[in-house]
Amino acid sequence: MNYPTQPKASHFINGAYVEDTSGTPIKVIYPATGAVIATVHAATPAIVEQVITSARAAQRAWAALPGTERGRILRRAADMMRARNHDLSVLETHDTGKPYQETSVADAASGADALEYFGGLAATLTGEHIQLGEDWAYTRREALGLCVGIGAWNYPTQIACWKGAPALACGNAMIFKPSETTPLCALKVAEILHEAGLPAGLYNVVQGMGEVGGALVSDPRVDKVSLTGSVPTGRKVYAAAAEGIKHVTMELGGKSPLLIFDDADLENAVSGAILGNFYSSGQVCSNGTRVFVHKGIKEAFLTRLSERLEQAVIGDPMDPATSFGPMVSERQMEIVQSYITKGIEEGARLVTGGARLDRGGFFLQPTVFADVTDDMTIAREEIFGPVMAVLDFDSEDEVMARANATEFGLAAGVFTSDLTRAHRVAAGFEAGTCFINSYNDAPVEVPFGGAKLSGVGRENAKQAIEHYSQLKSVYVRMGDLEAPF
Ligand SMILES: NC(=O)c1ccc[n+]([C@@H]2O[C@H](COP(=O)([O-])OP(=O)(O)OC[C@H]3O[C@@H](n4cnc5c(N)ncnc54)[C@H](O)[C@@H]3O)[C@@H](O)[C@H]2O)c1
Ligand SMILES: C[N+](C)(C)CCCC=O
């Protein structure tokens, strides 16, 4: 590490690190070894009060700045993130266990892209002029006020930026609560934003478990909540936000289908299945974990997939050669192990993997089940680990019906060389984000989010602006005003 994993203090409030050791201690565990690498403290009611008060106090002046000035600060922060990519990636690896091979290209880089993109958009946020005969009206695009972001543990830097960048670009203040499992990275995002010139109070980080998130969501001074997390948590947060009629963005879980037709390029399809199941040790919301393979190519697909999985380099996440790391925590590893046991009990064929590695930390083998049927638990529930379920299909109509027969709708993918079919299938998917002959791309220019239980709203792209701002309509009468009496 180029800098210590223990942060200066648990929280970042009003432009400075703040500590309150009376909050519940949260131990940060390096997933590759099980060692405690830092301890932070959950926010106390006093910390929650302090962060809400200071964020609200700072917001109006920020919203009143020209968009160019807000944008310049975000773009400066993006440059700083890129310049510090190595250190941020090392920290991300220690927070999550994801291999440096991944974090060095994916996490701070994606965060910087969001800061740069929304920094660029900040100056373009305008209303419109509406002519009404001689009278007219105009709209003003205004900030919502105080936004709360609540993060999952799989992409701590990316999530902190995907929520913070559009919020700040629109003139809001943000309080971000990272997952208690990965509390370190968001503090660095806050530090960088302030070094880049962000006025104090506008991007704050407070630590804690669900209760702290709940306290923030239900506070009447909070105007918007954006959650990245599981569907059960989404239900609670959405309900609490509804009580105050707050704006929400919900980025929730998935059980996405990936369809591989017999005319697909097999090597590309295997790559897509690997990227959609084993990247970040399978801890990706949009993963295509139900892999439907055309019957005629199933065995060829499984053979090539098994060969490719033998090339996975599993081990020390800091070794640049390592391409597959541990699960984020012992608890998550145990959850995934229980799904593997269920898959075997319910009659799925274990093609490869299935075991914990005999070494420190929370390592599981990349696991593939074949002959999975739609009713099996591993085909219905989000596992959030490196477990691929391969199901067979005969026809397009049949597989489309089965692919959509889920309460989730985050993502979906198709591999085929028939372009007409590819677009027909994409149109038929009940999902927010679809891939043709690819999987898990998430560039900032493209809206990302889910349908059905997988979410509400979109992150990234111009559409995110709609979720962090609101329109005010102003009517202007040019002549006298008549009234009935
Ligand atoms: N759609 C997406 O963009 C996306 C991205 C990443 C992860 N996810 C999903 O996140 C899940 C994994 O992450 P996780 O285990 O951290 O999820 P989780 O739902 O357990 O926790 C998410 C966050 O919510 C907080 N929280 C828990 N209860 C709360 C409450 N009552 N009020 C307010 N906050 C509360 C947690 O402290 C944490 O910060 C998976 O389901 C995954 O699919 C979705
Ligand atoms: C950029 N990825 C890898 C698609 C992750 C998006 C966020 C979901 O976990």
Automatic annotation (TrEMBL):
Q: Which UniProt keywords apply?
A: Metal-binding, NAD, Oxidation, Oxidoreductase, Potassium
Q: Does the keyword Repeat apply?
A: no
UniProt cross-references to InterPro entries, sorted A to Z: Ald_DH/histidinol_DH, Ald_DH_C, Ald_DH_CS_CYS, Ald_DH_CS_GLU, Ald_DH_N, Aldehyde_DH_dom, BADH
- Provide an example Pfam family for this protein: Aldedh
Q: What is its EC number?
A: 1.2.1.8
Give, as one word, the top-level EC class: oxidoreductase
The residues covered by the Aldehyde dehydrogenase domain are: 17-474
The entry's active site is E251
The Swiss-Prot or TrEMBL record annotates one GO molecular function as: betaine-aldehyde dehydrogenase (NAD+) activity
Tell whether Metal-binding is among the UniProt keywords.
yes
Spell out the family assignment given in the record's similarity comment: Belongs to the aldehyde dehydrogenase family.
This protein is called: Betaine-aldehyde dehydrogenase
Origin organism lineage: Bacteria, Pseudomonadati, Pseudomonadota, Alphaproteobacteria, Rhodobacterales
